[in-house]
Write a structure and sequence with these properties.
Shape: elongated
Distance between the termini: 148 Å
Structural class: alpha+beta
Number of strands: 13
Order of helices and strands: HHHHHHHHHHEEEEHEEEEHHEEEEE
Number of helices: 13
Largest sheet: 13 strands, mixed
Radius of gyration: 46 Å
Strand content: 15-25%
């Protein structure tokens, strides 16, 4: 019973618990139906946060797309602007090329026109000359017949026979003597050439590198012709000289800029070699213009210093010496000065505009386009420093003593007498003074008319020596042979009082022989004592002399005997060089000293070399190599 009772109690309690649980569930359901749960609130907040994030991401993507679109638009604009600049650059280059082409066409047109005019004037001149020659010949024959007729009237038959026999005998003797003299001179000249064959290396180097102290500050070169304003035959050469000067100065600017911008020593060396060649050509071209010395002094000095300083730096590089900061600074200064020269020449070319008579420069005065242009160059804004170095156009050379002239000064009348004496075979007319040239050699300027040409000369105030002369005119053909031209040159030097001169170099160009003579002493060639002589191959007449180097350096030297024999000195020459000859010479070293050397001439690897070995210690003093360029051969 007790057990059943307990069971009944347990059942009642369980029923009570079940009822309570059901009531609680109902209450919970009621509470849940009346208010949202915490979990729902959390879910809602989460949903709202996700929406905001999506909205922010959407906005961010929108901004990124907008930014990309803006970048693309800017890039399109940049590409468009770049293409526009490239088109403008191409257009400018095209315009520049067209302008250059027009200039070239103008040059060609002027060249053809001048050539045509030159040919026409040549034919006319030949015609007039032949006409005059026929007239003179007729008059001479007529005069000869009259004289002969008068003479025959008073002669007996015996006298006639004796006269004819004497004339025939005299003609035969004169002809025989002339033939023998010609053969003898030819044998002597051939012997001398055989002995000297292959030489002239130092002389060529002196000419190309300027080692022989030639300063052109106050001296006219041979190629300078001084025609009258009506001489249309020279107009072409003047036009060509001016335009070639502009071109060479442009080339100098280009090569100097490359040299300054290059680090490689070999490249710099090549640019400097090209600069030296361009400067030599530019100096030669500008000297062709009939400008007075004072108008072209600065231009020629600047061009010469650029070329000579370039050669000086080339020699340093060849010897393995690097360019110093001072070297580069000087080169930069010369580049700046040349740039202003280039701009000035371009402006002058623009102002002439192809309608300018260059022949008028000979008598042009202030106000002339080119005269004013060249005068302004004297006051360039760029001032480059004095260049003291081992070269002929170094500023330090202005203080050198002139060895070949005494201190005794002569008057203009004495200088004029010397002038007439030297040119006694030139049929001088209207001799007059044309001023005075100041410089390291002060000279009287004298000019005279010879036929239809103008002869211009400079006689030194000290000693009254002929320093230079140049005669206008052109040589149309090569009629006179080399031997005759040399004889005439030697005779002219003898008239100047220069003896023991030996021809060491010869060149012919434009029907004009250019001979270089050097003084000899005891059979030794003295390269510092040089005289350049120009002879017209048409007439055989000497038309130019340059003796400044001779009178600057000439003196009687105390030449000691060589300590080394030729075979001993030869050991200092490269073994693989094929030596073709050797001789004793005196060469300049720097500005003030000289050395007795053996000059060896030979070939190696197909190239020509000149080697100078000290005759006392066997050391190499100098070596030159023949370099073939577009404008001919140069020694570097």
């Amino acid at each position: 019973m007790e057990k059943k009772k307990n069971n009944a109690v347990e059942k009642a309690e369980k029923a009570k618990l079940v009822n309570k649980s059901q009531k609680n569930k109902k209450a919970n359901k009621k509470d849940m139906s009346n208010s949202p749960s915490q979990e729902n609130k959390t879910n809602e907040r989460q949903q709202m946060s996700n929406k905001e994030q999506l909205k922010a991401q959407k906005h961010q993507r929108k901004m990124e797309l907008k930014k990309q679109k803006e970048q693309k638009r800017r890039k399109r604009l940049e590409i468009k602007e770049q293409k526009k600049l490239e088109r403008e650059k191409v257009r400018a280059e095209k315009q520049k090329a067209n302008a250059q082409k027009r200039i070239e066409l103008a040059k060609i047109k002027a060249h053809k026109k001048a050539e045509k005019q030159k040919a026409k004037m040549t034919l006319l001149r030949d015609k007039q000359r032949r006409k005059q020659e026929r007239k003179e010949k007729r008059e001479a024959l007529k005069k000869e017949r009259l004289e002969k007729r008068q003479m025959l009237k008073s002669q007996t038959k015996q006298e006639k026979r004796e006269r004819k026999d004497a004339e025939r005998k005299a003609r035969r003797q004169a002809k025989l003597q002339k033939t023998q003299e010609r053969k003898q001179r030819k044998r002597e000249r051939q012997k001398r050439r055989d002995e000297n064959k292959g030489y002239g290396g130092w002389l060529a180097a002196v000419i190309s590198l300027g080692v022989a102290t030639l300063v052109l500050a106050s001296v006219l070169t041979f190629s300078l012709l001084m025609p009258t304003t009506t001489d249309n035959l020279m107009e072409l050469s003047y036009q060509k000289s001016f335009y070639d000067t502009v071109e060479q100065v442009d080339n100098i600017d280009l090569n100097l800029s490359k040299a300054l911008a290059s680090k490689d020593a070999m490249a710099v060396e090549q640019y400097l070699i090209d600069t030296a060649i361009n400067s030599e050509l530019a100096e030669n071209d500008i000297q062709q213009l009939p400008l007075h010395d004072e108008s072209k002094y600065y231009t020629t000095k600047l061009i010469n210093q650029i070329g000579d300083y370039s050669k000086y730096l080339v020699n340093k590089l060849i010897n393995g010496q690097p360019l110093t900061s001072v070297d580069k600074q000087n080169l930069q200064s010369l580049y700046s000065a040349n740039l202003e020269l280039k701009n000035a020449l371009q402006q002058m070319m623009k102002e002439t505009n192809g309608n300018y008579s260059f022949s008028s420069l000979a008598k042009a005065k202030s106000g002339d386009i080119l005269i004013e242009g060249f005068t302004k160059l004297q006051n360039l804004s760029v001032e480059y420093p004095e260049l003291i170095y081992d070269g002929p156009f170094s500023d330090g050379q202005d203080q050198r003593a002139i060895k070949g002239l005494s201190k005794e000064q002569v008057t203009f009348d004495i200088a004029k007498e010397n002038f007439i004496k030297i040119f006694k075979g030139y049929d001088l007319k209207n001799i007059k003074s044309s001023g005075q040239t100041d410089g390291d050699i002060v000279c009287y300027n004298i000019q005279a008319e010879v036929d239809d040409s103008l002869l211009y000369a400079q006689i030194s105030k000290n000693d009254g020596k002929l320093i230079m002369f140049s005669m206008a005119g052109s040589c149309e053909s090569a009629i006179v042979d080399e031997d005759t031209a040399i004889e005439n040159a030697e005779q002219f030097l003898s008239n100047m009082g220069l003896t023991d001169m030996q021809e060491v170099w010869m060149n012919i160009s434009n029907n004009v022989y250019t001979f270089n003579f050097a003084k000899t002493q005891n059979g030794i060639i003295l390269y510092p004592d040089l005289v350049k002589v120009r002879v017209c191959a048409e007439t055989g007449k000497v038309i130019g002399i340059e003796a400044k180097s001779y009178y600057t350096n000439h003196t009687t030297r105390s030449l000691s005997s060589a300590s080394l024999s030729q075979s001993q000195a030869k050991k200092s020459v490269f073994d693989d060089m094929q030596i073709k000859g050797a001789r004793l010479v005196v060469v300049p070293v720097g500005n003030t000293s000289e050395k007795l050397c053996y000059e060896f001439f030979g070939e190696f690897d197909g190239q020509t070399y000149y080697v100078y070995i000290d005759a006392n210690n066997g050391r190499q003093v100098e070596m030159f190599k023949v370099v073939e360029g577009t404008e001919g051969a140069y020694l570097m």
